Amino acid sequence: MGGMKTQAFGAVTVIPGENSSRFPWSSTLFIDDDVKAVIDTGAGERPLTELKENHRIDMVINSHFHFDHIAYNHLFTDTAILINEKEAQCYRDRRRIGILLGIEEVYGSEEVDRWIRRISRPESPQSPYSPQNNHKWWMSTSRLDGTYPWGHIFDFGKTKMHVIGAPGHSEGFCCMYFPEEGVVYVADIDLTSFGPWYGGIDGDIGQFIDSCREIAGMDADTFITGHEAGILTKEEFQAGLTVFLEKIEERDSRILAALTEPATIDDVAGKGLIYGRKFHSDEWVFMWNYLMTKKHIERMVTLGRALQVDDTYIST
User: CA 147, CA 82: separation in Å to the nearest integer?
Assistant: First the structure.
């Protein structure tokens, strides 16, 4: 099994994203039931335009607010747009997006406002490695028609979808569970070679690990990732998850090796131990590398593997 391909599980159809669902695209789910729904709109303009032309779509449900899962909300002009209640403010005030992604912490509050002005203009220059200035940010967060809480059960007719809160990747991140079909959409617990992403200020390493373990133990036969790996058996997902989570320990080890002598967070982040330095020309990649490095250093202090002395850190 495995791999990105169109496949149906009852009324639930997996629509692979463009470019094999590699970021900034992701897989989309289509629920073809009495209520017709789309889960995440990252698949791309071509497949989603085709879907919209062939089906009535009653609602779009975003699993979380990140670009690659909401980018094509704007195609669904006559459809209700929903997101989890923890992240609803992102659609009511775009500054919240910039704050959660780290712009305010790394570059200051005024840069959040400059970012909003950039995404409001289709002609804004694009960045080399991230979609930070993409106008779809503006178009696809322009409207919110409803929210849902963790634990909510969507009833589409014959199909029921349980919302499983799985924080760590983002504050409100959700996995979508279809118990009758034995399917769970794990979105960004995606088993990519990069490893877990918790780069926003609402990302948390410990929560990510706990959420992964909870999801891996669910009563499901099929696990669908948002990126690359695609449709997996439970055994494939659990095996891949072990490798995926090992990336966290690998990052810890690299960062501890950089702390054999006292160093600041800036010093360690500048080494590019999570995102290589060649990618730091993109302000958002630099930002995420800094924030993820900071999280690992703070984690090492909490675990007693590093010691803070003033504004420097050293491994113990």
Answer: 5
